[in-house]
Structure formats: C-alpha cells, structure tokens
Fold each of these.
Amino acid sequence: MKKLLIGIGLAVLAAGALAWFNREAIILHRVTSQGRMDVGPNQQVVWNQGPVTAAEAPANRPPNIIFILADDLGINDISTFGGGVAGGAVPTPHIDALAASGALYS
C-alpha cells in the first residue's frame, strides 16, 4: 500500500511539473480552442471640451501629470532613445512627441 501511495504521489508530482513547464502552451491552447472572438469596428470617443479660458492662472493650478507604464518595453523599442523596433523600421512619432514636450525619467 505504501509503494502505491508513493507511486501515485510521484505521478502527480511529475504531471504537475510537466504542466508547470508547459503552462503557456496549455493556456494558449485553451484560449484558441474556444474559437476566435470577433473584434468590433473602431468607435469614435467624444471627449468633453474644457472652457475656452481657464478659471485660474497656470501658476495657481496643479500640474498635469501623465504616467505611462509600459511593461516589458526595452529602451531600444521606441525611437525616442535612438532605437526603434526592427532597427528603426517602426517609428513611434506620438511617443516621441510626448517625450519631447515632457520630462523623461530613467
């Protein structure tokens, strides 16, 4: 009986290790086997416009801060830092414009 329990435990441990090392393939298979979801058309977003003139002077207002966090983005992936994906073949002009008009922290 003891040998049987040890055998079952080792089999469960081996199956768990195999599943752990292949977890990405298992998840991707699960997602793709359910069929592809159709993506709807783009929809325009109508933003509320602010007042024509500000209620307070710029010195009396708090600064506008936008914090962009891009996970797994290398310094060479955007053209702001002289790089760009595929040796600069994929330019990032909007990110470059944000960087040029703002502050860069590294």
Note: The chain has a mean pLDDT of 80.
Amino acid sequence: MSNDERVWEGGCFCGAVRYRIRGPEKFVAHDHCSMCRRIAGAAYVTWVGVPEPGFELVRGHDALTTFASSAEATRQFCARCGSHLFFRSERWPGEAHVTMASLDDPEGLTPKAHVFASDAVSWIRLDDGLPRFGGESGVEHEAP
C-alpha cells in the first residue's frame, strides 16, 4: 500500500487525545529549531506534515490546550499529561503537523531532511546523509 492510501493513528501519553492522519504526507523532517527543542525538551522534534483535510481529531478536544508559540504559529498539547502533539502556522497554511513520536506505529514514514539545522545543538551529529536546511528561514539549503 502506498503512503497515499495509508492511515496512521496516534495520541498523547495518557490516552485522552487521539488523532488520525491520512497520506500522502507533505513532509517528514527532523526539526532543530530552538523553540521545538525547548518545548519538547529534546534535541529535535520529528514532524509529519499532512494537508489539513488529512488530519482528524478522533477524541480529546476538551483535553487539548493551545499555545501561541509565535505571532504566526500555535502548538497543541494534552492538558492532562503534557504531550506535545500538533503545530500549525500561517507560514504553512492548510497543513497540520504532528509529532512523529506521538504516532502509535509510524511505519512507512521516513524522515527526509533536517530543518533549522543551523540551530542544531553541537552534540548532535547530522551525518545520516539527509539533506540539511537552515538559515534564517530554517529551510534554506545548506552544504553537508
């Protein structure tokens, strides 16, 4: 089955929030931006982007809290367990971004790039052969 037909399900740690995404995915990327790192408490966050119609919140709307992380973007978390789940931005209208780690089984989704690589922490090695993008926009092509 191609990813155009695939469906992935995921949710928060406590199970209060459940969602479903449908392929085709727009991108799968490791994001090294400082905001993602701080919010996730991790060296980077791997995001899966899908067209908004491919995103479905199955349950837990009342458990979601929305945080404006910038003037253009919001992030959503489970208010009960704190799981970082979703990101939307005016920069990418019509897309829903979900944290790959919150998927039950991300089989078939493979990261294709590092974005905001110029913000990566020095102790992370980016020698996996994936293209790197960075600069001020976070998506300008960088030399390996």
Note: Residues 34-40 form the longest helix (7 residues).
Amino acid sequence: MSLHHARAGEIVNLRPLGPGLQNAKNTALVKTGHFEAIRMIVRAGESIAPHKVAGHITLHCLEGRVRLSLERSALELGAGDWVYLDRGEMHSVEGMEDASLLLTILFEPRRE
C-alpha cells in the first residue's frame, strides 16, 4: 500500500487530535524535491536525538508541549508556537507532554 500525500489544492486537517493523540503516529503530508511537510508526534518523555536537517525547517506546535534544544539555547514550544531553524542547525526535541507538531522542510534547489 502506498502512502497518501496531499495533492496541490487538497485540504489537510491539522486541528489538535485531542484524545486521538494518544494513538497517533507520524504522518507524511507532502513530499517533493523541494518541500516536505510532516505531522510529527512526540510523546511525553520521548526524545529525538541531536541531528541536522539538509533544509530550512519550521516547527509549529499544534498541541502539547516540547523542548527544542539548539547548540546554544533551549526553547519550549506550546500549542500555537512556531519556530524557524536555518539549514543544518543542530537540534533535538524532547516531549514535555504528548505533542503534535507540523514540521516543514524547505530544500535548496539542486544546481545542475
């Protein structure tokens, strides 16, 4: 079974999952050569190890609470908070509460 990705012009519901958050999984929304969007689930106490991403990223916390650790600081994101990170910026994520986030990645165009 292939994974469904949203088509241009297709509406995607990103409302908080509420009680459904407990059983939710990461969901790829869109993936192209230049852009990727994922509804990311981070459970309380769960950590995503420090890493870098090849593109510029944004994280929009839809519900719950996470700690975003950067090289020189740490931020707490709660419902409605949004943050941008430059391409290649080292970061990690820790769930303070069960959380749902919209992760977007913008990749640099390939030079040919």
Note: The longest strand covers residues 35-42.
Amino acid sequence: MWKIGHASWLYCILGLSLAACSPPTSRAPGQAGTTERIGGTVNVLATWGGDEQASFLAMVQPFEERTGIRVSYEGTRDLNAVLTTRVQGGNPPDVAGLPGPGQVAELARGGKLVDLSGVLDMNAMREQYADDWLKLGQADGKQVGIFIKSAVKGLIWYNPKEFSRAGYAPPKSWDELMTLTRRMADTGTTPWCIGFEAGAASGWAGTDWLEDIVLRQSGPTVYEQWHQGKIKWSSPEITRAWETWGQIVADPRMVFGGRQAMLATNFGESGNPMFSSPPRCYLHHQASFITSFFVEGNPGLKPVEDFNFFSFPDMDQRYVGSIEGAGDLFGMFRDTPQARALMQYLVTPEAQSIWVKRGGAISPNKRISLDDYPD
C-alpha cells in the first residue's frame, strides 16, 4: 500500500474519488478484454488476508465467471520480501501488489514490469482516473502500476454511544485531544487501543502515527523531504514527532495493555476493546479500511451509530487540513492473455464497486457512484 501525505490529497481522494459526477458508463478501460472466454489461470500476489482477501475474491468472481479464467490468489504481509525473492528467482507472479515507489522504479528499470499503456485503454483511464493517481503509478514515463483501491489515513475512530455516555466530544486540536485523553485516563479507562502486529510487516501502524504527526506538525515540505531521505531521522523535526507521539505510547496510562500489548496485538483486532461493555479504550487511530475489521470482529455494528471518526487534529495553523492518503497499486509481471484481462477488469467501475459496496474501500475510479458506498 502506497502512502501519500499532502494537504491536497484530501481533495484527490475525497473529491476526485468519491464525488462521482455520473454513474458508471458502458465504456471501461480495456473492457473488451474482459468479455471473452479465455480460460487458464492468473496468479496474483498481494497483502490482503481475512475480510480483505474475501472482498478481493468477491471482486474477481464475475471476472472468473465471464472469462473462464481462474484467479489463483496468494496473500502475504511481507510483500516486499516475497515479491523480490520471486522476481530474482525468475518466478514472478503474473500480477501483484507493488510495495512502494522506490521498489516500483527499481523493478521498472530492471525490465520486470510490463508497460500498461499497451494493456489498458489510456484514454479511458484518463477519463476515469485523476491524473495524480496515474502519475503515482509511473516510472521513467511508463505506466507500470495502477491503483485499484484507496484509503484515507489519519482517522481517529470512536464509539459514539460510549463517548456520549461519558460526556466526551471529538477534539478540534492536538491540545484538546491530549486534554481529553488525560481526562479519560483519570477515570481509570485507558484512552487508546493500539496494535502493531502484522506478521513480517509488523510496525507499519506505528509509522502511520509518526507520518501523521510530521505532516501536521512540520508540514508537507518536510514530510516530502523526509521520505526522500533529505531529512534525517535524527533531525529536529523528526525527533520532535517522536517526542510528541511519546506522550501517548510511552505513558502506560494511555494505551490499553501497555507496550507489550501494542507489539503483540494485530492491527486489525486492536480496535475491538472499544466495543466491549464497558469499553476498555475510547480511541483508535487507523485508516478508513478498518471499518471492515470492526464489523468482522463485532458482527452487528452499524457505522455512525456504533463507530465514527474524526480527523487527526491539526497541530499547526499553517498546515490546517493536511491529510494522508494511501492506495493499493498493482503491476503486471507476465504478459499473458489472462494477466491482461485481469488488469483491464480491475480498473473498471464494475470491479471496484464490488469492494466498495462491501465496505472498507474507496475507489480511485471517478465513475463509482456515491450510492455504492454503504455509509
């Protein structure tokens, strides 16, 4: 999953992705390639497991029925290592999620990724995708990747019923948030539920925290320079972010279960204590996709009524409205009829609306109707 931190990404993701001006049309990128009976198998490697894997398989079911192609899916949280090993061993998957911009550029320059401009109808892609989404999948001017799902990062989730019962209200600034969490801790209930465990990928939920703080505390320019390696981890800006985060994670009163629980609890399950009675925490920091994990772990929960969110509070008035976005980027490693057909299908409104309707996903395709979102 790629992550992008800019104030402008609020508009890229929520404005361009969600504000559909028209319903899906019959013209979709590469649609002709997905209506033929082809047969065979296409191998897919990605990070999804559990409910996310189930949503992807539901997404490709109509494709399998229509084309006769079987989608053989392999999920791993250690995507970078598994993909690198298979590519180096000459046994890449047909289609795979891509780990990040650095690795994508490396794979493209090594001739490992197929140029998708010869696979997809790029005129239709430009009609249906914001230009920013296309550029983020390019390397050396070639379209080597395409986003099939996106998310908004930096959201703080809470249980509205328990919030109301305790007399709490969503804070509007970082200072208000810290005042609220100290108030919660004083009642004997830890404010936060946090979980970093994700197999070989453990820890990414912690980097999300730091990225949110750096973006809102020091601004988009510093954020960009940091991920480009131009600002060191020991710089004053990044040191300050660690110290700010430490007010939460280094205080045993602030996190349910303390440090050991943070390290041992799976990211997808870590928000569940919010829904116990009485709640064992009140707040959970995670991206928009976490809603599917909430419902999976607590059947019967209803959005807005049982869980809602507020944005990560502003820290500096110069960077008001900053937000971080993320997306699942796919690339093609083997140029086969089956892989072409799948890539052509995955970018369509038809395909992406399936995951959208199941929850936990935002589509980068502008033709998805707002009516397809469950809440």
Note: The longest strand covers residues 323-332.
